[in-house]
Amino acid sequence: MDYLIDLIIYPFLFAIVLNISVGPLFFLLIETAISKGFRCSLSLIIGIISADLLYICICYFGGKETIRNLEDNWILFLIGGIIIFIYGIRLLTKKKIDLSEIKIKKVDFLNLFVKGFIINVANIGVLIFWMGVVTFSIKNFREDYRVLIFFSTLMSFYLSIEIMKVVLAKKLRSKLSPKVINNINRLLAYIFMIFGIFIALKNFF
Q1: What confidence score (pLDDT) does residue 101 get?
Q2: Residue from 137, 124, 4 nearest 69 by CA
Q3: Cα 21 versus chain centre, distance
């Protein structure tokens, strides 16, 4: 029973926490699902998860000193905040969407992957979250294979919930007018800009 709790229940709970943490990528994922469809959303998700895996590896193999240096480095927070803020400005000046003219090109998939990866990496708060999860896993699971099972289960739950959000958002597509979608884009732009300012200034307070 303890084995079940450690390697299934805990990963599920962490995946839930990760998914209900409403940040800019949450809104970006919903907007992408509505305006561009499932495959583009999946590319974005893979980019986001790739950034998560990078931070997990940094936390697990980098050691406490490396993590502390990254966490206390105000330059990283500043750069990350600026990247997110600039992306918000780019969204604000983006051409208005006309659902009848949307055509998904092959290049969109790579662009969305890179977009999800960079924006997630730019959010240093993600590193802090994974630092806590890695610390928890090391403390509770002494064997490397159990840590691997823990993170594999966690990321599987996380991916499944993200895909469910995309499917639900896609169902809303037919019920939303271009005006509503464009308003969502504007709201998303402001969220990114505010979040970018918050990240950039976080270490100064």
Answers
A1: 46
A2: 124
A3: 9
| Spatial separation of the C-alpha atoms in residues 59 and 54, rounded to whole Å | 9
Q: What is the gyration radius of the CA atoms in the chain, in angstroms?
A: 18
Rounded-to-integer distance, Cα 57 and Cα 153, Å: 16
Residue with structure tokens 């000046």?
A: 93
Phi, psi of 39 (to 5 degrees): -65, -40
The Cβ-side half-sphere exposure at 116, using a 13 Å CA radius, reads 28
CA distance 110 to 108: 6
* Token couple for 148: 């691997």
**Cα distance between residue 10 and residue 29, in whole Å:** 25
Q: How many residues does the chain have?
A: 205
Helices (H), 37-103: 38-71, 74-92
3-state secondary structure of 142: coil
Q: Looking up tokens 């699971």, which residue turns up?
A: 141
Cα-Cα end-to-end distance for the chain: 44
- CA dist 198 and 7 (Å) reads 35
Cβ atoms within 10 A of the Cβ of 104, count?
A: 11
Strand locations in the chain, DSSP E?
none
For the chain, list residues with pLDDT below 70. 1-6, 20-24, 63-74, 76, 80, 87, 91, 94-107, 173-178, 181, 202-205
